[in-house]
Amino acid sequence: MLKKHIVPFVVMAALFMMAKVFAYQMPLAQKSLLKEEKLNTTIPPTETQIEEPVSLMAQLSFAKETLPLGDKRVERKMKKILAAHSYDNLQTHRLHRRAAEWFPIIEPILAAYGIPNDFKYLALVESGMQSGVSPKGAAGVWQFMPGTARMYGLKVHGGTDERYNLRKSTIAACKYIKEMYKGLESWTLVAAAYNVGDGRLRKQINNQNQDNYYKMKLNRETGGYVYKVISMKQIMEHPVRYGYDKPKQLLAYNAE
């Protein structure tokens, strides 16, 4: 009879002990697995991206048309003309004073005619460093010849010369620029044509079978004209870089 009761008791005790051991080993197994997972998990090293310095040539453009990168001849010429426009060489703040006076009038007119904002720098190149009438007879901020001025609606006769009226002459310049763009389809070529004349530039394009301004062979003045405009843009937008102090009133007029 006693044996009959002992057997179930022994079985129950054995099951109880096994359950206790199993319960004790479970958390140990979980901890071991977690530890193993941590060891096997590799954390990828943080990649530090080093930004390559942007070259000067890559930063330069006219009316969002870039200069040809990798062209050493263009790069040398650009750097030479930029150096010529530094404060050490020009030593004048007249350009910034005129920009502060002219740009608030010129910019909205350019925008109204759909002409890139960079064309305001043509006015500074044309007459920003000088005043009066050129030896050829061009006058005013946009340096119109009398015949061209009349063609685009300006009065030039007797005591009236609207080439000196900034608003009216800017409107005339916009009409002229827009007309040239229809045939040239490049703002850079339009800027060059403003200097040499639309007809003469078209003739050179046909003769050379080349419509990239930077690759064309042009007279010295026209061949350097767009470079001068880009240089003017640089010293207006980054004056401190070229030795100028930036007048506060210019802050609103330099962004496109």
Automatic annotation (TrEMBL):
Q: Which InterPro entries match?
A: Lysozyme-like_dom_sf (IPR023346), Transglycosylase_SLT_dom_1 (IPR008258)
Domain of life of the organism in this record? Answer: Bacteria
User: Which residue ranges does the record assign to the Transglycosylase SLT domain?
Assistant: 116-215
- CDD domains from the entry? MltD-like
The record's family statement is: Belongs to the transglycosylase Slt family.
The protein's name: Lytic transglycosylase domain-containing protein
Lineage here is: Bacteria, Pseudomonadati, Bacteroidota, Sphingobacteriia, Sphingobacteriales
